[in-house]
Amino acid sequence: MSTADPNLRLPARSCVVIPARLASTRLPQKLLLSETGKPLIQHTFEAVQQARRPETVWVATDHREIESVVRAFGGNVEMTDPAASSGTDRVAEVAARLNQFDIIVNVQGDEPEISGAAIDLAIELLEQNQQATMSTLATPIRSRTQLEDPSCVKVVFDQAFRAMYFSRAPIPWPRQWNDDLLQQTPACFHQHIGLYAYRREFLLQLASLPVAPMENLECLEQLRVLNAGNEILVGVIDHAAIGIDTQADYQAFVKRVQQASAQSRRGGS
Rg (Cα) of the chain, in Å, rounded? Predict the structure, then answer.
């Protein structure tokens, strides 16, 4: 886990905003799927509530159906512009209305198993490092297949845990490959986890930053931040939560929920 100078720690008010778009290419209306007895967006909302540092959780949605579902389970929800180009823009739109908070955390709506400790770490990094405008997370890569998969975004960072670059390519690239590289401690390779904490003022300015050439090449929005000379801190966690992108992902999640429920019933009997 990354560390910071405790002398820089300042109290900060923080909240989580979950961007929740109804449309989904690979799994239509996935945030409303409810084979577990709860819609997927509720699972994510409740997982986020396990974090200790955020004061509140909001859902930012583009569709009345999601708004209705969130209100039904008692969650906070705000409607956002359906034409918003990204989840970040949706989060920023809600953040503009939440001027009482210093730090805004963006957690994707399809992360029902996100760790509360991971959210707390992202917030703590910004509390302890006043120069950074953003923080995010990473986890070690232990598979060469994963390392070479362009859908797995990699990140490299310096000794102060400041991001140096994000890429779909394997970074760093070993001049001479050895399988032992995948097992080293600390890890040689890290997968980027798409959870972000922002200073609110920076988040509201993010959309106005010029698009970076490398952002277009890699299709990675966080490169815009680095290109503009801003710091992104990286917290390292042991494991990444499993996001829901496909029907197979969702069915595996349902199975895990059912197994956990059965185990809980056995423990209580």
Answer: 19
Burial (CB count <10 Å: 0-12, 13-18, 19+), residue 129: buried
Distance CA 166, CA 191 (A): 9
221: number of Cβ within 10 Å: 18
Q: What are the structure tokens assigned to 48, written together?
A: 């986020």
CA distance 126 to 201: 13
Q: Which residue has the tokens 């490959």?
A: 177
CA quadruple 78, 201, 83, 106: dihedral sign: negative
φ, ψ (nearest 5 deg) of residue 103:
-125, 135
Token pair 């499993």 is found at 242
Residue 85 DSSP label: S
pLDDT tens track of the chain, all 269 residues? 444 454 445 569 999 999 999 988 889 999 999 999 999 999 999 999 999 999 999 999 999 999 999 999 999 999 999 988 889 999 999 999 999 999 999 999 999 999 999 999 999 999 999 989 999 999 999 999 999 999 999 999 999 999 999 999 999 999 999 999 999 999 999 999 999 999 999 999 998 899 999 999 999 999 999 999 999 999 999 999 999 999 999 999 999 999 998 988 887 65
Report how far residue 111's alpha carbon sits from residue 41's, in angstroms, rounded to the nearest whole number.
Answer: 8
Residues 228 and 114: their CA atoms lie apart, in Å, by 29
**Which domains can be identified in the chain, with CATH numbers?**
6-268 (3.90.550.10)
